[in-house]
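Question:
Write out your own:
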Amino acid sequence: MTTVVRDEALRPDRLELGEGIRWTGSGIVLVDILTGRLLAAPEDPTAPLRELARLSVPLGAVAPVADRPGTWIAAAGTGICLLTPDGTQSWLARPEDGAPLPMRMNDAATDPSGRFWAGSMAYDADEGAGSLHRVDHDGTVTRVLDGITVPNGPAFTADGTTMYLADSARGIVRRYPVDPATGELGAPEPFVTVDDGSPDGMTVDVEGAVWIAVWGTGTVRRYLPAGRLDRTLRLPVSQPAGVCLREDVLHVTTARVGLTAPGPLDGALFTARVDVPGTPAAAYRPSPEVS
């Protein structure tokens, strides 16, 4: 089934590389990666996005920090930091400092157990240069996967036992078993291979299906847990990049970066009502000593 999303965007904003969109339970946040901006989407669907923070380095994605209102954990620059309400950045680690290639953090998400997972990639998307990092409750940052080119996601099932991770440049989404008690990953299996574009941002709905923004195709696709394509949403742009579900409304970020002649809607934020809802993004749950 294919649904065409209306060919207008209500908000006036046009982002260079809009990604990392999340429903926190109290609102929608997203990032414009290359400009280092963290943005909030006001309840009024026609209102401009509101800037919450601006970093001097690329900002891949954030998650709220439990019991610390206004504080975020962020995949930014070459590592992971905490952003406090006054704009202070407290770095937990910079694992990509000193890498042989210029690197930056990309997409990231928190699992249901409260760990933060963040991908890194080379600025020029060099083959196999990227990694996936896990931030545990005590703030320890561990490189858990390498050899990835452009990591996107991850996205987790509600019970935290499965992680989906895209290697966008290679057109594949893999499914990993996860031990919720330890965060250890099992052996992956292919979930979806995309031949006509690049799988980018993802989210999992309450039925366990995976919504994937497919860069270069103007589509968002819903895949059932067995990997079968269930439906396709078609957008009036070519580069959808991030997705989230706020209950039964799908929010989609798009990008203008790399387009020689961007159209009037490239980089806009789109919404579409769907019939299977999602749940709020999980918060990072640090130990008390992490600050």
In short: The two ends are 47 Å apart (CA to CA).
